[in-house]
Structure formats: C-alpha cells, structure tokens
Amino acid sequence: MSPKLREEALERRARRLQEVLPEAEALMHACAACGHACGADRKAGARGRCHVESADPRSVRYASATLHFGEEPVLVGRGGSGTVFLSRCNLCCVFCQNHQISQEGLGRDVQAEDLADVFLDMQAQGAENVNLVTPTHYFYPILLALNMACSRGLALPIVYNTNGYDSLTLLTLLDGIVDIYLPDLKYMDEGNALRYSAAPGYSTVAKAALQEMYRQVGSVELEHGAARKGLLIRHLVLPDDISGSYEALLWLKDAGLTEATIGLMSQYSPQYRAREYPELLRRLHPKEYRDFVEYAEKLGFEHVLTQSLASTEHYLPDFRRRDPFRSYA
Ligand code: SF4
Fold it and tell me: Which of 28, 49, 202, 205 to mutate to test the pocket of ligand 1 (most atoms within 8 A of CB)?
C-alpha cells in the first residue's frame, strides 16, 4: 500500500472510531455484545455472564502484553505480534488452556488511557500488529483506547482475536476499525457448545459472525510477509470429532469461505476441567488429524495452516510468568 493510501485508511479509521463511540457506550447500557445477549447494564456497573469484575466501564483487565512469536507466521512477520491477553471470557470452555486468565481472572485492571499506552508501546517495539485476544466483553474500553492511540499515531493493523461468539450488533460497530479478524469456529453442534463451553446457540452465532467478518475484510492480504487485512479462521480439532470438524469444513465451503485462511489446530490437550469429561481426556491421534487435513484439501481449501502434533506443549502458556510464552522468545 502506498504511503498516501495508508494515510487515507488511517484517517478513515480515526473518523470511524469517533463515529461509533456513542453507539458503543449505548450498547454498554444493555449489553448484547456477544451471543449471551444478557442485557447487563455495564455502564451502571452490573456484571454480565462474562464475569467482568470491575464496575468501571472504562477499565479493562489484561494479563500480558508481549511480542508473541508463536502465532501464525502471517501474524508474526518479522517483528512479532503485539499480543494483549485480556482477562475473563464470555465462554466457559472446560478445556481452556488460558483458564488462568479466562476463568480465574488473573490480570491487572487499568484504564483505557493505559491500554492506549500499551498499544503505542507495541508499535514502538516493532510489532506487526495489535493483537487483542478475547476482546469481546471489553469492546467499550478497547474502542476508547484505540481512539486515543490512533490520535497519537497508532498505525498498526488491529487484530480481533475472538472465540467467535460475537453478536452482529458488535461486529457492525467494528466495521472499518478491525483490519484482521481471527475468530475460532469451535463447534458445529449446539449441544456440545452448551456442554463444554456454556454457550447457547454458539454455532448459529459464530456462523453469522464469520460471514459478517468476511464481508468486512475479505481474504488475507500480505505486505512483506505479514497480514495487513483479512479473515483467518481457527478451528481446534477435538477428540472424536466433538468439534464437528468435518461439518465445519463443509459449512465453510457452502458459505463461500474457501478463500479465507483456515488454521486447523492440532494442539488440543486436556487442561483445566477436562478431567471431568472422559471423552476429553486424550490428545488427538495423528491419523485423526491427518485425515481431517486431507479432507480440507479434498474440499478445495487453498489457504490451510496446519500444526505439528508434536508441538502441543509449546502452546501452553503460564500467565504467572512475565512472558507466558517464553519458549518462543
Ligand atoms: S459481553 Fe458479557 S455482558 Fe455483554 S452480552 Fe456477552 S456476557 Fe453479557
């Protein structure tokens, strides 16, 4: 992209942020940011299903902000992904590898102003992007922080790294602000989504979300090996096809998403409360994963990212450390 076009794009993003902030504030009064649509008045300090503790709507809790080299290569580029791990989550996945922050709430509370400083610090360190991990329930302080950081020169692509349980109401607000959507497609079976993640209607919500994300940003576009925009869908393959992996691929094809980049993740290992579910107690068999990857190729997906089964342990973070993914540094 030429410098002039980039400048124009940044000006459009700045204008869009100004435009959506009042709508984002209104959404906080009866929150419907995610599939729960629980209606909590978060502006008045009420707590929703996502268990955000702070009654201050401008505050955000994060556990780590680091240059992360363990994300997909198109996100890492040369400088690393400027990853901000936000605490709490609107899902309760019984096998969550980030449970220290998502379920136990590890992290520190800061104001939107401080989060803006974090974004600018990532840029100063040479990050390829600002990668917001599990951002849905903090949409309001994040938009405030982006508005402040952009007015102070933030020019990095914004990555919205989500579990996919995002409402269309929220995604409409993010149109023109998010450059790269990085959603999960966790389940195709609504019963499994309820049983393992306490997410009613997950499949319906996520399918609509992915289509809207693709409409907004399209396929991944690279610049010097790093993504500037686009949709990258992650699918974590669970044992015994609990995640509905084959059905997910068929749906993606039917929905016209074969040009999107698909990350087929083999890294599942039984974490957190998985021991309470005998069917979740094992890792993937190599053949189970291989067969699935071959099926994706057979269906004509061209932008497929795969993982080595041997690498499972490398993906397990420890958020009590200063750098939770130390082995990548
Ligand atoms: S983000 Fe939280 S408060 Fe908002 S609808 Fe979802 S669970 Fe409720």
Answer: 49
